[in-house]
Specification:
alpha/beta; 5 helices
Length: about 190
């Protein structure tokens, strides 16, 4: 499969496995490649190549990369397989104490998957600036021309704060507030 003039941008789909399968019950081959073919065509037709997804690491997030950074048994292996099958590049975005934290310029989106600890101030500030380069929602009429808002996907399940019934802070409260996503005080 190829699209356009760039012959380097191509993909190969095998008949058995990608486009068809053998149904043992009916003893027949069945075509099941619509989804796979459309995924490949969408990928090849996209400008700029593979979308790049960065996953924050270092705060107890789900482990996608087998680095053992997340708590034992907290992996997202199926998510990783699904995203890679759809031609996404997946990269870790680790935080190390004392190191500058920034979202790489090639990021299509950043994902924060169920951290067990509040994100450090440096991480929260970098994510805030990535998502809201113009500042808090409604503060400025237009974002700076050289900056565009980034995409951020958060999975923030509620976690208890110690032995109390209070919900633990995520470190992203300022971002959520400035983006107009702060919970209502009810």
């Amino acid at each position: 499969v190829t699209v356009g003039d760039n012959e380097e941008k191509k993909s190969f789909l095998s008949l058995e496995g990608d486009l068809a399968g053998f149904n043992r019950r009916d003893r027949a081959f069945t075509f099941s490649g619509e989804n796979k073919l459309m995924t490949e065509l969408s990928f090849l037709a996209s400008v700029g190549g593979d979308p790049v997804l960065y996953f924050t690491q270092g705060n107890g997030e789900l482990d996608l990369f087998g680095q053992g950074g997340g708590p034992k048994g907290r992996t997202a292996t199926k998510l990783k397989q699904s995203l890679e099958a759809k031609k996404f590049q997946l990269k870790p975005l680790p935080y190390e104490v004392g190191q500058k934290f920034a979202v790489p310029p090639d990021a299509t989106a950043v994902l924060v998957l169920a951290p067990r600890r509040a994100l450090p101030t440096e991480v929260a500030r970098a994510l805030h600036d990535y998502v809201l380069p113009e500042g808090p929602k409604g503060k400025f009429d237009e974002p700076p021309p050289d900056k565009k808002a980034g995409r951020l996907i958060l999975v923030l399940p509620p976690a208890k704060e110690g032995a109390s019934d209070r919900v633990a802070p995520t470190g992203l409260e300022l971002l959520l507030n400035d983006a107009g996503l702060a919970p209502s005080p009810t």
